[in-house]
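Late entry, evening session. Most of the bench is empty. Finally got around to the prediction I had been postponing all week. Sequence below, unchanged from the version circulated by S.P.
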Amino acid sequence: MNNFTYRNPVELVFGKGTIAELRRLVPQGDKVLFAYGGGSIKKNGVYDQVRAALEGRDVLEFAGIEPNPRYETCMKAVDLCRREGVGFLLAVGGGSVLDAVKFIAAAVPFQGEPWDILAKHAKVEAALPLGSVLTLPATGSEMNGNSVISRDETREKLAFYSPLVYPKFSILDPETTFTLPPRQTANGVVDAFAHTMEQYMTYPADAPLQDRMAEAI
């Protein structure tokens, strides 16, 4: 018998119009960093929905998070959070935005060189709270404490995990995916499939129930 402990603290909010739930979910009184990627959320209406839900709040925006987020970009957000006294992070986008925001959450209060979180597996002792509005179904980053960050200077792509960077909530409104280009939708499907097959083909465990689930997918 293999003993285990399972816990997932993320509040999942699913359905049409659920972005409006940000009014309830984002803590009152905290300065919020609203982080997103290349600006597609301004074309599909998600940006306007988020701003409407956060009306009256003290909100800073940080745009331009890349696919495969860069350490250099993340550190600009870290500096902004420290300088402005940000108390809550909101990631709006796909897995890359979420990965970046998780690292930012860990890096802001970190005592020392934040790159050590990735390169030396330095323990994350504290993190800013964060939430997410997902616009691209793919990796499941909205439900875990994992993050992958790239650094141009060293040409490295490294990962870290901390239970402190699980989102407090994740909003999944299927309508945010309706305007995705076919290629992006296909990329998300392949990504989810690849993660499933990775576990199915390489993890040496006798887990017949998990295997049957993977085969169904």
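Two things to note before I forget:
Residues 181-217 form one domain.
The first strand starts at residue 11 and ends at 14.
Will write this up properly tomorrow.
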